């Protein structure tokens, strides 16, 4: 019993200081004005002004699109990796581990070199007369989705690779012997096994995209507003800084993620039952 307490206490202390207390302070500060008094004006401002509503909508929209695209590619990629030799799988997983951490300013800079106005892709498009490539802008919404996909896909593959590797070839062979076709096998055997992992992976990809700040800011600056961009502008230390309003936005962000996680867990529990 004593050893369990010794192990649990440091973990609980880290959770308290690093997560619980900051969340409590954030929620309380969201209901305070600049003078420290209680107010609901922060939330009325957020939901009453189009600027803040657009930031919430943009965050949800781009996170949804990037999450879905990243999930689909991750499913195909993880499945394809499991078909390779064991040594090749290990090498690719190491590379995807590195790629999953390659985000923020380095990723944005790399994409600007390739797809920027004076980038490699523009030069090739001009030389080879490739219209769609020449018209593509990394500084647009499509460019942001491309940038998000670059770090969403490796992360999704890492989460889906392990459960997909557990699927044995013998299962499909046994299903064929019993008269099942491929679509029936996927629907009744593979999908129920992988669905909880797919849902959990989508939630992680969605949260990862929604909380991204550096990549978006490096590519678009303040031209494309989102919750992280607005929060960053509200706590930058300038004369227009408004920490309580930033805390209210962060609380909305946390509430959206909590609802998504709870909904995902409910779906997963139903499927497992």
TrEMBL record:
It is a multi-pass membrane protein. Residues 56-264 form the ABC transmembrane type-1 domain. InterPro entries: MetI-like, MetI-like_sf. SUPFAM superfamilies: MetI-like. Its main location: membrane. The chain crosses the membrane at residues 7-31, 51-79, 91-116, 136-163, 184-207, 243-263. This is ABC transmembrane type-1 domain-containing protein. Pfam families: BPD_transp_1. It comes from the Bacteria. Belongs to the binding-protein-dependent transport system permease family. CysTW subfamily. Keywords: Cell membrane, Membrane, Transmembrane, Transmembrane helix, Transport. It is found in: Cell membrane. It comes from Periweissella ghanensis.
């Amino acid at each position: 019993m004593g050893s369990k307490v010794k192990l649990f206490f440091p973990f609980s202390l880290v959770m308290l200081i690093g997560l619980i207390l900051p969340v409590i302070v954030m929620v309380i500060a969201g209901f305070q004005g600049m003078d420290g008094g209680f107010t609901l004006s922060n939330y009325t401002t957020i939901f009453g002004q189009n600027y803040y509503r657009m930031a919430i909508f943009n965050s949800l929209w781009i996170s949804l699109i990037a999450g879905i695209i990243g999930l689909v590619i991750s499913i195909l990629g993880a499945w394809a990796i499991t078909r390779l030799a064991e040594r090749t799988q290990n090498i690719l997983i190491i590379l995807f581990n590195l790629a999953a951490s390659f985000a923020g300013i380095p990723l944005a800079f790399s994409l600007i070199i390739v797809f920027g106005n004076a980038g490699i892709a523009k030069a090739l498009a001009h030389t080879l007369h490739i219209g769609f490539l020449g018209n593509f802008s990394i500084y647009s919404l499509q460019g942001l989705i491309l940038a998000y996909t670059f770090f969403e896909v490796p992360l999704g593959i890492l989460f889906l690779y392990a459960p997909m590797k557990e699927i044995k070839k013998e299962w499909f062979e046994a299903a064929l012997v019993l008269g099942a076709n491929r679509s029936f096998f996927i629907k009744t055997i593979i999908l129920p096994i992988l669905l909880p992992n797919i849902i959990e992976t989508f939630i992680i990809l969605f949260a990862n995209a929604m909380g991204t700040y550096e990549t978006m800011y490096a590519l678009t600056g303040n031209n494309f507003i989102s919750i992280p961009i607005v929060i960053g502008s509200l706590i930058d230390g300038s004369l227009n800084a408004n920490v309580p309003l930033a805390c209210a936005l962060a609380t909305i962000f946390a509430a959206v993620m909590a609802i998504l996680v709870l909904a995902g867990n409910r779906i997963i529990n139903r499927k497992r039952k």
